[in-house]
Amino acid sequence: MTLTESTMPAAVYRRPGELDITEVPLPELGPCDALVEVAYCGVCGTDLHMVLDGWGTPDTIFGHEWSGQVAAAGSEARIAKGTAVVGRGWTECGRCQHCQQGQPGLCIDRPLAGLDDGHSGAFARYLVTDYRNLTAIPDGVSLREAAYAEPLAVAMHAISQGSFSDGGQAIVFGCGPIGAAVVSVLIARGGDVTVVELSEPRQDLARRLGAAVRSTDELETPAHPGQVPADAVGWVFETSGARQAAQAGLTQLAGGGTMVIVGTGMDYPKLDTNRMILNELVVTGAYEYDPDGLAAALDLIAKGALPMDVLVEPDPVGLDGILDIMGRLRSGEVAGKVLVQP
Questions:
Q1: How many CB atoms lie within 10 A of CB 114?
Q2: Domains of the chain listed by start with CATH number
Q3: pLDDT, tens digit, for every residue of 78-115?
Q4: CB of 137 within 8 A of CB of 85?
Q5: pTM of the full predicted structure?
Q6: What pLDDT is stored for residue 230 in this prediction?
Q7: Is 42 helix (H, G, I), strand (E, B) or coil?
Q8: Is residue 1 predicted with pLDDT exceeding 60?
Q9: Cα 317 to Cα 256: distance, rounded to the nearest angstrom
Q10: Distance CA 298, CA 301 (A)
Q11: Where are the beta strands (DSSP E) in the chain?
């Protein structure tokens, strides 16, 4: 790790559909910060919204699903150079009610997603973050596998939010990166999982993960909000961000069932509140992950509980390949988690 350079290559968002691969100044290192050399960074669905849909702020470097090694540490950062780590980009206050209750993702000081994260992203050779945001990668987990920890932690939190019972029946709408992670964890917990997905490559991914696959046309739509389908399930996980998926998902729940909404989108659903009342359904969102989410995800990977060779695409792309792969992910042509190797 050579730190004599003052600049580094990065993919900088300029405007909708445009990434500028350019040299930028090395991020500044504060006393409690660690400078991490990025090994891999996953392309997230949120990144697609920020770059392709124009949700992002111009001149931002995105990328938050990363692994790497500590290249340098600030004077007060208690972490050794060379440590293999994953991490998050911001630090919760630790004082508000949410933090005290173990819900750091709801911290009152949290940044607005995609707008003011206040940290350098991982679509670059280096990033800087507070050392307290870092989690060491355990022995036996490669840097490539570790880059999957963040989306896996998000999936695990969604399942926790839904209070899923091992062996339960669930429908997952969407089998993109987060959907696939949800499916794999549910199956690892003995779940009977059905995936509703339009893309053929993602349907194939769902089958390789061990899930059944159905189309929306095959879902029973009860005529009355007090009725439920004959094959209704206890849990629905909506990971696609599509309005129709959330609306259809609600109709597939058995009485007392729970729908967890994980996918983000701007075409908001219209949910049948009469169905929710008559069947005492629970609808909740899931954002980020638990306080120990990254460590728990790394532990699950270390145990060999997940088919990582199925979940992660075999070939990483460089910074100059990000925009093209985003388009292929958006179209559904590519199904698994794509890693960028800056």
A1: 18
A2: 7-148+312-340 (3.90.180.10), 153-285 (3.40.50.720)
A3: 999 999 999 986 677 778 888 888 887 788 877 766 55
A4: yes
A5: 0.91
A6: 95
A7: strand
A8: no
A9: 44
A10: 5
A11: 7-15, 18-25, 33-42, 65-73, 84-87, 126-130, 134-136, 169-173, 192-196, 212-214, 233-238, 253-261, 282-285, 339-340
